[in-house]
Design goal:
heterodimer; A: 220 residues; alpha/beta; Rossmann fold; eight-stranded parallel beta sheet; 8 strands; 26% helix; globular; B: 365 residues; seven-stranded mixed beta sheet; five-stranded mixed beta sheet; 14 strands; 42% helix
Chain lengths: 220, 365
Amino acid sequence: MVERVEAFVGEYAAGKSEVAINRALALRQQGKQVTLVDLDLVEPTFTLRPLKHQLEGQGLNVIAWETAQTFGLGEAGMQLHPQARSAMLRTGHLVCDVGYGVFGSEVLNLVEGALACPHLGVYLVVNTTRPMTSSVDLILEEAKLFNPLHGLLNNTHLGAETTVELVQRGAQIVQVAANELNLPVIATPALAEIAQQMDGYDVCGNPVWPLRRYLQTAFW
Amino acid sequence: MTNVIEAEQRSFMTGNEVVAWAALAAGAEFMYGYPITPQNEIMHYWTRLAPKFKRGFLQTEDELSAGFATLGGVMAGRKSFCATAGPGNVLMQEPISMAEMMRIPAVWFIQQRGGPSTATVIYSQQETRLTCLGGNGEGNRLVYSTASHQEVFDYAIKAFNNAWNYRFPTFVLGDGYQAKMREAVTLYDPAQRGIELHGTSRMLGRSSKQLDGQQVRHYRNTFNIEEELYETLMQHIADWDHMAEEVVEWAWEGDEEPDLLLVAHGVVSRAVYAAYEHLKSAGYNVAYFRPITLRPFPVAALQRAAGRCRQLLVAESAYGQLLSLVRDSLYGKTCAPIEGLLRPGLGITEELVVEWAQRLLARVG
């Protein structure tokens, strides 16, 4: 059975897939068995599909559609990869990339046993440069959509225009929101070149996760 | 009306969200729509934002009624807009034709997807011809083809103003890549940039007091006799020609006598511009042309850019829709061969354009 489940949830375009991929690879580098699950039911073929083979080549098990498997499906609405259903029967760590949508973290229901895992972490990914999560109040509003929720991630960035100051401003906003929610800030993921300038921790003392951008190359 | 954007802010967004925010900033009061990928998040974000800013939304039973309801909203005096894609765009040609005939100034956001029919859900440039010339009229429309999120925001505001200024249906033509991709954009309050928003007024149902001396207007989309239609239409065409001179936009860069002129519109123009810069830095004699308004098409500007070029390469994610606009514009003006890099429904990268361009450049070298 899977020992630990980490699920990344949040607003549309908050950076969930990028964070999930990087987290899965970081755990793999620590020598763990890792399965990355695409739980995006709204756009099930657009995030991990183009990267599946590349990520498998880097040692991850990836549950996501392959291009050839999606031939013939058309615009058939929600498509859950059947392997996701029994993903808890695998060993090691499960990292779930939960797509946006009205069901919030409830989508985890579809992975049988995931919500009952004693080591479950559902983390809200927040980018404070996005208008819908740009203030403490708005983050609190967003967080209401997700239950259970175990922590927040400060994923504040502006793509290629990201600066250390911007990430740190985001860290402060996310920390205040986390305090209000009585939840921890798990980390501040930041592009590797930004992370290098931050000595391992953000201004609030939370760990910095260095990120590499993968989705930039995911050309549909 | 509540101020939508208090202070200019740099935000990381998807194109669909930018459309929703731009419509709010442009003073749009009502969106009518019917869901279709890849424009859905325009509706998702508009419906999340509308209550906060006291704006309205109605989901109709299909695209035909969404299009007509948009026109109804405008006639009732509300700044209304609509968004759709693919087969939804096909269905909306009927209300859009009525807007042309009755000079109803509504704004449409089109996020092109693959065609024909339902085809694919994300990306294509196959609605170029339909958006410019669809319907059973003369194409009396204004069509902006955007290439970045900043342009989506800027041209959305411009589209609302020009629609109400010239009273022709006006389009912001994007595509699924622009709808879904993420990049930084500056949101701003148009007033703070000195942009005055065009007001609206009721077209129907005004009391004699509200008319305030203005003549009662008779809005019609049906005529008894051909001569009457001809007279009305020729006035519309004259108005459209006048508008065309004032609104036509393009981008052009590079040598005036290039060995190769690269032409593209919309998101493909980004790949083509990157290829142009790559080729220029490699010492090639090249130029780049991008129509920003597809209707009116920048005919005179393209003729100037192509007048002394040795050959042209038109790149598009369609099978000759931009190419035919280019050929029409250049008929009789150049002997240069016009090649097409035509990939209906598929993306076009900088690398691909460079590869094609180098092959053509070797031919004239």
